[in-house]
Amino acid sequence: MTTRTMDTAQELAAFLRSRREGLDPDRLGLPSHRRPRRTPGLRREEVAELAGVSTDYVIRLEQARGPRPSAEVLAALARALRLNPSERDYLFDLAGRRRPGAAEPDAGAAASLARLVGDFSPLAAMLLDHRYDILAWNPEMARLLPGFETVPPSRRNAMWLCLMHPEMRGFCADREQVLRDGIAHLRAAWAAHPQDRALSGLIAEFAAQDEDFARLWSQREVGVNGRGRKVLRHPAAGAITVDFEVLLPLQDPELRLLVYRAADEKSRESLDRLYAR
User: Fold this and answer.
1) What does the alpha-carbon distance between residue 272 and residue 125 come to, in Å, rounded to a whole number?
2) Distance of CA 172 to the CA centre of its chain
3) Which is it for the CA torsion 90, 229, 160, 132, positive or negative?
4) Domain holding 191: CATH number?
5) Is residue 60 within 8 Å of 44, Cβ to Cβ?
6) What does pTM read for this prediction?
7) Residues ≥6 apart with Cβ < 8 Å to 264
8) Per-residue pLDDT tens over the stretch 208-245
9) Is there a smaller number of Cβ atoms within 10 Å at the N or the C end of the chain?
10) Domain count of the chain?
11) 148: domain range?
């Protein structure tokens, strides 16, 4: 990724190709053809037939030569390609048909939510924006993240910590899945904010400096994971299993509150000891 901002036409073309090539024609019940398939997935003419558009139109979209698709055409392509809700939103964002990127949250709202983060104690909580920049955190979260308080303010970003901070490299037991989920979120944010130079710069930096990020980014997975479970390997507290929940403020959907809570009694006891130090 070399440009500072997003080339939405090229990304729309690449995304359509990747999703077409990832579909299994047998599972969709399409008729078999005598001639062998030279490439994986559906043919362009099959996508065109399923979406009710011309094959030439699909070709032009996949070559970044087509006009901006209408909302109706996008909906038909999403159905034809069996996109999930997050992928559908991504497609609409790339075509500029969903909503423009929201403005930066106003300082008053961020300050109010920062106070709320403190009220979540003794649960570990932090406030993030769409770039994964960490805007606020409570003492429990600072103790849970190894070495967090030594990180310069300019590097207080959840993805940067996971990729670049030495003390965080082995923090998540399933680092691959954590990265996959985080990158799927960043890709969705990237499409919703195509002119966000700070976000594009972060993504370019991560792709240049971390092979795992570059590999997973190229897979074009899209999604926002709102809850789940992680196993953390804390250098002082040992293995801790936490459930996490992501909360979106109604008036500031570009911000998100991330809350961790112990998933079992042993983990709760470990967290209590860690927080009491």
Assistant:
1) 15
2) 17
3) positive
4) 3.30.450.180
5) no
6) 0.78
7) 241
8) 999 999 999 999 999 877 899 999 999 999 999 999 99
9) C
10) 2
11) 107-276
